[in-house]
Amino acid sequence: MSSTEDSGEEYGNAEINDRGRLTIPKKLRDEMHLDAGTTFTVVRDGTDIRLVRELPELRTLSSGKSDEDWGPETFRDAGEGTFGGR
C-alpha cells in the first residue's frame, strides 16, 4: 500500500475480492467518518490508484428571520464568539 501525503500512516492491506469489491480498513473508515453510501472518484496516478472522496455540496441555511428581526447588534461579536477572539 502506498503511503499518504498527509500523514504517511498505513492502515494495513486491502484485497479486491472476486466481485471486484475493495474493503477500506475499519480504523481508516472510522477516523475519516466513511459510512455506507460515501462516494469516491477513482483516479489513476501512474501505477497508483487514488480514491478521492466526493464531499456533499454546502447549503446555506436560514432561520427565516429578517435583518429587522435580528437587530443591528446581533453579529457585532460573532467573530469572537465563533473563533474565541483569535
From TrEMBL:
GO molecular function: DNA binding
Record flagged with keyword Cell inner membrane: no
Domain SpoVT-AbrB: 14-59
Location of the region described as Disordered in the Swiss-Prot/TrEMBL record: 1-20, 61-86
Alphabetical list of SMART domains matching this protein: SpoVT_AbrB (SM00966)
Alphabetic keyword roster: DNA-binding
InterPro entries: SpoVT-AbrB_dom, SpoVT-AbrB_sf
Superkingdom, natural source: Archaea
Secretion signal span: none
Record's keyword annotation contains Hydrolase: no
Annotated protein name in UniProt: AbrB/MazE/SpoVT family DNA-binding domain-containing protein
